[in-house]
Amino acid sequence: MSTAEAPRTLTASPVLELQLDCRSEAVGPARHLATAFLEQLEPAVEKDAREAVILVVSELVTNAVRHAGGRACSLRLRAGPESVVVDVHDSSPALPRPRTPDVTGEGGGFGWSMVCRIATVVKIDRESAGKTVTAIIPRLGHGSS
């Protein structure tokens, strides 16, 4: 019988699921809980990738809050060996669309294009009760942790 240690690998796919009040006050707690979720993963998610996931969570939840009109929204994070999957569901049937950014800082327009640049995969699933936006971010960032 060998006494060698097994390599550190992710043996399960941890999941965080949150039902959110679809109000602006939900964005901060969503970021905080996503950060806590990422910090407990083994092996660790690289710093650049953690920051990317937090930014994507922030932008997608903000978009859901802004465009779902106060109705239900939810966040789900799934961690696999190679990536972290961010799913944000809201009850609005309207699809995200790129907008000309408002450089005065009052009207937004930066979030959707940032999500599309950061994630390796972005998809939108229309459902009878709204839509789910999914973004996949590699666990390995562009730099070292």
Walk me through the structure.
The chain is 29% helix and 26% strand. Strand 2 (73-79) and strand 3 form a beta hairpin. The protein has helices at 27-39, 47-67, 111-118; strands spanning 15-20, 73-79, 83-90, 121-127, 130-138. The protein contains three helices and five strands. Strands 1-2-3-5-4 form a five-stranded antiparallel sheet, covered by helices on one side. The model is unreliable at 1-11 (pLDDT under 50). It has a single domain, classed as Histidine kinase-like ATPase, C-terminal domain (Heat Shock Protein 90), CATH 3.30.565.10. It is of the alpha+beta class and 145 residues long. One of its GO terms (molecular function) is protein serine/threonine kinase activity. Pfam families: HATPase_c_2. This is ATP-binding protein. It comes from Streptomyces angustmyceticus. Residues 24-136 form the Histidine kinase/HSP90-like ATPase domain.
Number of domains: 1
Number of DSSP strand runs? 5
Chain-averaged pLDDT = 84
Count of alpha and pi helical runs: 3
Structural class: alpha+beta
Strand content: 25-35%
Briefly, what CATH class? Alpha Beta
Characterize the main sheet. Answer: 5 strands, antiparallel
**CATH superfamily descriptor:** Histidine kinase-like ATPase, C-terminal domain
Distance N to C terminus: 36 Å
Helix content estimate: 25-40%
The name CATH uses for the topology is Heat Shock Protein 90
Strand order of the largest sheet: 1-2-3-5-4
The H-and-E topology, N to C, reads as EHHEEHEE
- Return residue spans where pLDDT drops below 50 for at least 5 consecutive residues: 1-11
